[in-house]
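SEQUENCE-TO-STRUCTURE ENTRY
===========================

Subject: a protein chain together with a token-level encoding of how that chain folds.

Sequence line: the amino acid chain in single-letter code, read from start to end.

Question of interest: how does this chain fold, as expressed in backbone structure tokens?
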Amino acid sequence: MPSTDTKQLLYHSIEEIGTLYRKKEVSPLEITEATLDRLQELEPKLNAFITVLSEQALAKARKAEAAFLDGANVSKLFGIPVSLKDIFMTKGIRTSLGSRIMKDFVPDEDAFVYRALQDTGAIIVGKNNMLEFAYGSVHQDYGQCNNPWNVSRTAGGSSTGSGASVAAGIGYASIGTDTGGSIRVPASFCGIIGLKPTYETVSRQGLFPLSHSLDHIGPLTRTVRDNAIVLEHISSRRFNFDSLFTGEIRGVKVGVIRSLTDSIKNQEVTALMVSAIQQLKELGAQLYDVEISGIESIERAAMPIVLAEASTYHQKWFEPREKDYAPNTYANLREGYRVTAVSYLEALEQKKRFTEAVDQVLKQVDVLICPTVPYPATEKDPSFEDGNIDISQRTIPFNMSGHPAITLSAGNTSSENLPVGLQLIGRYYDEETIYRVADAFQQSTGGYKQPSL
């Protein structure tokens, strides 16, 4: 087991660990060994990984250690342990997608994000558990990934293991996918930072698709600044940290989406939202109440798109492998084949109109805010088939519009000490502003809170 001091290093920021590497006060090998020890210690409780890459990670850590001893000029992610959702192709390494159908699949190509992480010198410790095909249902062969704040609750999906592992100190970041909230929901449930960047900011090459019109790739981290570091390395965006993360947000115009905020039924979530909005005001933000035309119905419009596009990728397995799917996954795929061309095209037209409506509101304010999820972590992963689609009511609108959206912790409930997420939405390709506001909020509320797991 790692020592108490080393364990605490697992919760440091990426920048802090990089500084310690450069000062030769700790080595990538020590941190990687501690990360793998932490993984083995918690995995029986969390079930956050499908494949663990111990040998590969330790070999790379030794090379990173030698590079730092030689004083090499390296990236901010060099020697940093990370993970990624098991939906990305990894050459020579199993890519299961949380499914029985793909349990032995070993691709002959690397996904763009995996290659990008490798190129930065990041140390990939494993591939994370996920809902089957990222489609709203856990497969019984892999089991539910549990929440580090309370292991009797779900970590949230579909990037389940990504959220749980980062929150639990197993790596400093993970890469997930988000089609209707699959980065932001687990980040909200686990009390961490999850970014869905602007559509197509991160290449989807080598990603097994769920819905190509709505799929986004983004990072999950414990701090906003770490999130920006990871995004820099997996996209073409570059951030000036010195000017971006000043803690100053005076005059920033923040639009509160009232229809998504005032409709929360959970009183503790409502109280945390009221407190978060007040905190932004105290930081100098200018607050406005806003409404977005069509936002209450856009989730329903998203369903024909998701259903039809998802089923497209399963035609060769749908009939011969019916019994190998989780029942709810199969039911979703069956519904996809029933979507008419007219319904699909009408939904795409609604998507276009809704995107224009969001753009119009963002001409009046700099960022939008609302709760991420209307409640804290549930016992089991909500499923579309069970009718529990309210979980994505506040996230999927911005998959439809493609605008960047980030979630961060607004605090924990007093009754059960479970995190609640605050979501910020920005203009196209303006991750900088939502990062700046999110960072100021996180810094002013004491930074990342770690679970006692």
